[in-house]
Amino acid sequence: MDNGNLPKHGNYGCGIDIGGSGVKGAIVDMDTGEFVTDRIKIETPQPATPEAVAETVAHIVQELGWDGRVGICMPTVIKDQVAHLAANIDDSWVGTNVHELFSQHLPGRKIAVLNDADAAGLAEVAFGDEAARTGATLFLTFGTGIGSAFITDGVLFPNTELGHMYVGKKEAEHQASSAVRDREELSYKQWAKRVDKVLKEYERLFNPSFFVVGGGISRKADKWVPYLTVDTPVIPAQLRNRAGIVGAAMAVAKDVTP
Ligand code: BGC
User: Which backbone phi and psi does 201 adopt, to 5 degrees?
Assistant: First the structure.
């Protein structure tokens, strides 16, 4: 990859998305939400301890040839810049001051760290389907877990963790994540029935204007969204695997630091 041609005068940002299997980063055009470099992906180190992951993040930023502010998102609650929950990451993150951690590995940079679904939701609302730009949007991402972001007129209410809400006898993400679909070898129709049940519960309690559904599975939206019977309109996410990176870059540019 050659990022030597990165134009010098654009309104750019750097976003990093830390996931269970990969740490991904790119330079983003903040006016369009498009990448201006290739996306760099490095396998998440195992065990995915804070130190090991922070080293990987610093490595990606260096590879991107970027010396400005960095936005980082990850699958955990980030409150006052401390990681609080570790459903799908190493337990050693709990209690880590992520701002301090990443600042040590990227000295002198402005850093913002936020939840991965919150980042992806911010990006989708800004650059995805126009319908979701105004009003109360509930963004959901279906992957290893279920991530959620409440966004009203572009403003985020962070750390909502609706994937861990009980729907019937189980947490939503234990019955309707896309990892569960793979594990139980469910057809799209069977899986959509489970997603529908979860969405109906969210609808009953939160009454959003729209659901925006993302994650890798949003690429196949035509295979399962038509089976949903929930009343609230369901909009497939458009940025797909770009969303976390773009949203993380937006968070540091806009000072969103939950
Ligand atoms: C985590 C959330 C995350 C979601 C999607 C859940 O298990 O608790 O913080 O946003 O997975 O990655």
Answer: -70, -45
Domains and CATH numbers, the chain: 3-118+243-253 (3.30.420.40), 129-237 (3.30.420.40)
Q: Is 90 in a helix, a strand, or coil? A: coil
Q: CB-side exposure of 116: number of CA atoms within 13 Å?
A: 30
Cα-to-centroid distance, 2 and ligand 1 (Å): 33
Say yes or no: CB of residue 143 within 6 Å of ligand 1.
yes
Helix ranges, 92-187 (H): 98-105, 116-127, 173-176, 178-183
Hey, CA dihedral for 10, 219, 139, 80, is it positive or negative? Answer: negative
Looking at residue 3, what is its pLDDT? Answer: 52
Contact 37, 254 (CB under 8 A): no
**Residue whose CA is at the smallest distance from ligand 1 atom 12:** 75
CB 239 within 8 A of CB 217: no
Cα–Cα distance between 27 and 5 in angstroms, integer? 12
Average pLDDT score over residue span 111-130: 96
Please say whether the beta carbons of 14 and 27 come within 8 A. yes
Paired tokens of 76: 């955990």
CA terminus-to-terminus distance, the chain: 34
pLDDT, one tens digit per residue, over 154-177 is 899 999 999 999 999 999 999 999
pLDDT at 162: 98
Ligand 1: residue whose CA is nearest its atom 11: 145
Does the beta carbon of 88 lie inside 6 Å of ligand 1?
A: yes
